[in-house]
Amino acid sequence: MHSFLPAEMTFSVGDSITFVLTAQTEFHTFTLDDLGIDVPVDGGETVRHTFTFNQAGTFNLICIPHELQGMVGTITVK
């Protein structure tokens, strides 16, 4: 089963977060369309992506190739 760990995250406006994204065996994405984030991660690769949250809201996190298999999450910014 494909999943984000954790699948639900909460941050505050102004937080600068570095996500460490690891795809063990196949291609994945870390995609938040509403925030303009779309980070590809090839199988066997680890990628770091830093983002500063400048707006409050709840944002849907998806892996484009595995969204229908349940690889989704939520980022809430307060």
Which labels suit this protein?
single chain; 78 residues; mainly beta; Immunoglobulin-like; three-stranded mixed beta sheet; two-stranded antiparallel ribbon; 7 strands; 0% helix; globular
Describe this structure in a few short sentences.
The chain is mostly beta strands and 78 residues long.
Describe the structure.
- The chain has a three-stranded mixed sheet with strand order 1-7-6, with no helix packed on it. A two-stranded antiparallel sheet has the order 2-5.
- The protein starts with 7 loop residues before the first strand and ends with a strand.
- The protein has a single domain, classed as Cupredoxins -  blue copper proteins (Immunoglobulin-like).
- Helices cover 0% and strands 54% of the residues.
- A hairpin with a 4-residue loop joins strand 3 (28-32) and strand 4 (37-41).
- The chain is mainly beta and 78 residues long.
- The protein is built from no helices and seven strands.
Write the layout of secondary structure elements.
Blueprint: E1 8-11, E2 16-23, E3 28-32, E4 37-41, E5 45-52, E6 57-62, E7 72-77
Parallel strand pairs: 1-7
Antiparallel strand pairs: 2-5, 3-4, 6-7
